[in-house]
From TrEMBL:
Residue intervals passing through the bilayer: 147-173, 185-205, 225-248, 260-281, 312-334, 355-379, 385-408
Record key words, sorted: Cell membrane, Disulfide bond, G-protein coupled receptor, Glycoprotein, Membrane, Receptor, Signal, Transducer, Transmembrane, Transmembrane helix
InterPro entries, A to Z: GAIN_B, GAIN_dom_sf, GPCR_2-like_7TM, GPCR_2_secretin-like, GPR1/GPR3/GPR5, GPS
Protein's recorded name: AGRG3 protein
Statement: the UniProt record of this protein carries the keyword Membrane: yes
Membrane topology reported for the UniProt record: Multi-pass membrane protein
Molecular function GO labels: G protein-coupled receptor activity
GO terms under biological process: adenylate cyclase-activating G protein-coupled receptor signaling pathway; cell surface receptor signaling pathway
Domain called G-protein coupled receptors family 2 profile: residue spans: 152-407
Domain GAIN-B: 1-142
Gene that this polypeptide is encoded by: Adgrg3
Entry GO terms, CC: plasma membrane
Keyword S-adenosyl-L-methionine (UniProt): no
Length: 433
């Protein structure tokens, strides 16, 4: 909740209403009144929804009527321009209209309206005439933000612990058992991915601990390091997907000398170039998260608000492409595993709990839990942020369990590992050729 006059219209900057010509053409030569009603609902006991999630801009509702008939289904929409001060990053504007039939006493709906947000104005395009307003949906409040920071901090500690367990386990089985080259490369990939997760969680803990009191230069360095660790995590997730594609789709294999070394150069080197370019244009610094009443929730050393385009391109866009590719690979791997299980080739996956754990581990290995970040906007942000934080904290745990099930103990009865599936698939393909 914020003050009632948070975004009071600045002097000389009034809102605008544009009515399409189609409304008047349908009236032919009739003379009808055009009425625009502006109400301050704080002074009236009306337009109040029982479980309203957002704050009405300036407590103002605008009603538009042309004649006495109801007008809806307009091809050329009515446009209302609401002017306001610059909104905090945690606030999402939403164009809504009053629907008397919603619930027992009516409520706000957004169907038929399109929201076009801007820095100091928001344009609402709606296909009908009624009472409209602009809702300010707040993603976080102070108590929710503190709870999320506590969950994230605890989750980072758990993730770091299991990352260490996973790397130790991979080193142990590489030294203890004699695996074929394909499996050794897979283990090396897993170690690098988990190592990037460890560094990312460590960077977040350092960021949340020192960002509020850090020197501007130190904050820029810490923001760049955090961004680098995040990009490394995304890149190694992409490399895991590429490796699975080569193993399950290009089943006859391709020999690449010093393959793992080249993957390391790409996985740890490519983010250096991106961070170097972003740092060169001054993208890093103090990033402040605020509520609607400008209460500071958190200080972070990250990409500054002036360079959010860098965030959208290097983080959202980059991960979006990786996610689409990895989900396609996940579908191929799942289809091949199911077909092999149908032929009775893979005995180790017949227990339902093992199937669920292996699928969950593979899902986490390909970075699917990061995709929840795309849903952390609007009025449902708080639940999604909790889910995003918790699942990404459990990512290292699921990967650890997944590796233990697949690679240990190595007995004659354990035939459900990826190496066995790949070998069987190669033999099947070779026999068909």
């Amino acid at each position: 909740q914020g003050p009632s006059r948070l975004n009071t219209t600045e002097k000389g900057k009034a809102g605008k209403i544009h009515l399409p010509r189609a409304i008047f053409r349908s009236l032919s030569s009739q003379t009808v009144p055009v009425v625009v009603t502006v109400l301050n609902i704080q002074q009236f006991d009306m337009f109040k929804e029982a479980n309203q999630t957002g704050q009405v801009l300036d407590n103002t509702v605008v009603g538009i009527t042309v004649g006495e008939s109801s007008i809806s289904g307009l091809q050329d929409p009515v446009q209302l321009t609401f002017t306001h001060r610059e909104l905090p990053q945690s606030v999402t504007p939403q164009c809504v209209f009053w629907d008397p039939s919603k619930g027992q006493a009516g409520g706000w709906r957004s169907s038929g309206c399109v929201t076009q947000p801007g820095d100091k104005r928001t344009v609402c395009s709606c296909d009908h005439l009624t009472f409209f307003t602009l809702l300010l949906n707040q993603a976080l409040d102070g108590s929710t933000a503190k709870a999320l920071m506590a969950v994230a901090t605890a989750g980072c500690g758990v993730a770091m612990a299991f990352s260490i367990f996973t790397m130790a386990f991979c080193i142990f089985i590489r030294c203890r058992f004699r695996f074929e080259e394909t499996v050794r490369i897979n283990l090396g990939l897993h170690m690098n991915l988990v190592g990037s997760l460890f560094l990312l969680n460590l960077a977040f803990l350092l960021n949340s601990g020192f960002s509020g009191s850090a020197h501007p230069r130190t904050c820029r360095v810490l923001g760049g390091i955090t961004h680098y660790c995040l990009l490394c995590c995304f890149t190694w997730t992409a490399l895991e997907g590429c490796q699975l594609y080569l193993l399950f789709v290009k089943v006859l294999g391709i020999y690449i000398p010093h393959y793992l070394g080249k993957l390391c150069l790409l996985g740890w080197g490519l983010p250096v170039l991106v961070v170097g370019v972003a740092g060169g244009i001054g993208s890093y610094g103090e990033y402040i998260i605020q509520t609607t009443d400008h209460q500071v929730i958190a200080h972070l050393c990250w990409i500054t608000s002036k360079h959010l385009l860098v965030h959208y391109i290097t983080n959202c866009g980059y991960f979006g492409l990786i996610f689409l590719f990895n989900m396609a690979v996940f579908g191929v791997v799942t289809q091949k595993s199911c077909s092999l299980q149908g032929t009775g080739a893979v005995q180790g996956y017949r227990k339902p709990w093992k199937v669920a754990l292996v699928a969950t581990g593979l899902f986490c290995l390909l970075g699917a839990t990061w995709a929840l970040a795309f849903l952390t906007y609007g009025i449902s942000s708080a639940p999604m942020l909790y889910l995003f934080t918790i699942l990404n904290s459990l990512q290292a745990i699921f990967i650890f369990i997944w590796l233990v099930i697949l690679y240990y103990p190595k007995t004659k009865e354990t035939t459900g590992s990826l190496s066995y599936i790949i070998k069987h698939d190669k033999n099947t393909t070779a026999s068909q050729d």
